[in-house]
């Protein structure tokens, strides 16, 4: 029997309805016309409750992340591409090659279908450009006022070679601390939009998939100790995490840390510290001192690492303090955030 005729979704003026999360025909229509249309591939198109996938070689790395950014659309990206990039990067900084993504959507009743389609299309483009398919997913719809539009959770699966061993516990005194580019772009792009700030040079999110940059780096320098992407809490929290894991301290140089002038101006205007502002397309690298030059060269040769810099050094310190040598020659303690400096940024 042919299925009853179902009127196509009103992609321009339609809104998400509770029935589209109830498991019936309305939900299947939403999945087909919005998600499968944009994200479809040989695995997702199996249409089962999970995906049957080829077994990867080497060890398996899994990372999962929830995305609740507000606003949903911002200069340089949106929650869709951010959900892809954020999880791919969590897999990549383990030294793994990302292979597959799973995605879960919590939609709010009344959310515009046009915005949902825009988000899913952005997600599909990011996944396609990264070469990592979304192979399975789930959708739920909650009552109006319960979800602030849309929340997305993504899980990534990657393959890790047996000879790669990266960890925040591997930093050693004398190691160099490298950054792949300027900090604070993502967080300040969102904050500037919220506050209605405009600058001669617009602040654009740095959201990007880093696995290509990581591969370039590891191919050139197989002795890297640790990789991290400085997201929530920014560079300050990332370095404190590594220091605590490894039982070491760090000294970073204020003059060496790249910050775009517009980001620095926005931070000064709003009373924020760039060290605490999130990035979504930057890499923190800890490597042995004899490999610093090779690591910088490898980063700088990649489009996402052209502004890479050596910004500090690991030192012995049982207190595990992170310090910054200021432009005036003094030192200040770089501590963890005690609360949330910028809410809902990723």
Automatic annotation (TrEMBL):
PurM-like N-terminal domain segment(s): 47-159
Classification via Gene3D superfamilies: PurM-like C-terminal domain, PurM-like, N-terminal domain
Domain annotation PurM-like C-terminal: ranges: 172-323
GO terms classed as biological process: protein maturation
UniProt xrefs under CDD domains: HypE (cd02197)
Pfam families: AIRS, AIRS_C
NCBIfam families in UniProt: hypE
Entry's family note: Belongs to the HypE family.
PANTHER family, per database record: CARBAMOYL DEHYDRATASE HYPE, HYDROGENASE ISOENZYMES FORMATION PROTEIN HYPE
Protein name: Carbamoyl phosphate phosphatase, hydrogenase 3 maturation protein
Organism annotation: Denitratisoma oestradiolicum
């Amino acid at each position: 029997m042919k299925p009853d005729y179902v009127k196509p979704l009103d992609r321009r003026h339609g809104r998400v309805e509770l029935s589209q999360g109830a498991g019936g025909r309305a939900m299947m229509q939403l999945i087909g016309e919005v998600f499968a249309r944009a994200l479809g591939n040989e695995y997702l198109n199996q249409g089962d409750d999970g995906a049957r996938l080829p077994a990867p070689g080497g060890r398996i790395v899994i990372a999962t992340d929830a995305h609740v950014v507000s606003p949903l659309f911002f200069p340089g990206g949106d929650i869709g591409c951010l959900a892809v990039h954020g999880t791919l990067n969590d897999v990549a900084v383990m030294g793994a090659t990302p292979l597959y993504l799973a995605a879960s959507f919590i939609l709010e009743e009344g959310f515009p279908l046009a915005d949902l389609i825009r988000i899913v299309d952005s997600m599909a483009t990011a996944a396609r450009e990264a070469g990592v398919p979304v192979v399975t997913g789930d959708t739920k719809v909650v009552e109006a006022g319960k979800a602030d539009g849309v929340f997305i959770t993504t899980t990534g699966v990657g393959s890790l070679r047996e000879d790669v061993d990266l960890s925040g516990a591997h930093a050693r005194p004398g190691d160099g601390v490298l950054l792949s580019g300027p900090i604070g772009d993502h967080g300040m792009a969102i904050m500037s939009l919220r506050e209605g700030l405009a600058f001669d040079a617009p602040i654009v999110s740095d959201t990007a998939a880093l696995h290509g940059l990581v591969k370039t780096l590891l191919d050139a320098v197989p002795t890297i100790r640790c990789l991290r992407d400085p997201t929530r809490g920014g560079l300050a929290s990332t370095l404190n995490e590594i220091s605590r894991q490894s039982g070491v301290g760090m000294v970073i140089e204020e003059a060496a840390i790249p910050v775009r002038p517009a980001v620095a101006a926005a931070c000064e205007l709003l009373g924020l510290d760039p060290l605490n502002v999130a990035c979504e397309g930057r890499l923190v690298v800890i490597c042995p001192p004899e490999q610093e030059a090779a690591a910088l060269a490898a980063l700088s040769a990649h489009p996402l690492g052209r502004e890479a810099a050596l910004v500090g050094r690991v030192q012995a310190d049982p207190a595990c303090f992170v310090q910054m040598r200021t432009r005036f020659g003094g030192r200040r303690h770089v501590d963890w955030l005690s609360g949330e400096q910028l809410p809902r940024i990723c």
